[in-house]
Amino acid sequence: CHRFKTICYRSSKDTKSYNEAKATCREDRGMLATAKDEETQQHLARQMDAIYMFRAWIGLTDETEEGQWLWEDGTLVGDDAIWASGEPNKHYGKNCAVMSKTDSPGHGYRWYDSDCQHHNLYFCEILFSTIS
């Protein structure tokens, strides 16, 4: 795992739907990664670059209420969200967020809404104190 502050981030080696990825993280006593600030976003981006990961699920969804994006821990996404331009685009069925490399120079990784049934790589975050 890659430790950052008090959290261990584990990248997957397999692709899963959002709910399958979420269940896998929970089995490991964690949850899908929450990139709530620029510093954490940059840490995940560096990990993605290091392993040539182009796109990954993050723990962000509006499945409960369309347009209300919540992190896996139940907190609402703030005004500092790192969405790509034009995202979330609110197309039907795009209720889960992926962090993906952009085509725009200098923009690195941004969030996109995606169909939760698509299969993507993912990051789990686990409190370092719970790792055995």
The helix/strand series, from N terminus to C terminus, equals EEHEHEEEEE
Helix content: 10-25%
- Label the overall shape: globular
The span between the termini is 12 Å
In short:
The protein has 132 residues and is an alpha+beta fold.
Question: Could you characterize the architecture of this molecule?
Answer:
The protein is globular. Helix content is 17%, strand content 29%. The mean pLDDT is 89. The protein is built from two helices and eight strands; from the N terminus they run E-E-H-E-H-E-E-E-E-E. The protein has 132 residues and is an alpha+beta fold. Strands 1, 2, 3, 4, 5, 6, 7 and 8 form an eight-stranded mixed beta sheet that branches.
Helix and strand topology:
Elements: E1 2-4, E2 7-11, H1 18-27, E3 31-32, H2 38-50, E4 55-61, E5 70-71, E6 96-101, E7 109-114, E8 121-127
Parallel strand pairs: 4-8
Antiparallel strand pairs: 1-2, 2-8, 3-8, 4-5, 4-6, 6-7
What descriptors fit this protein?
132 residues; alpha+beta; eight-stranded mixed sheet
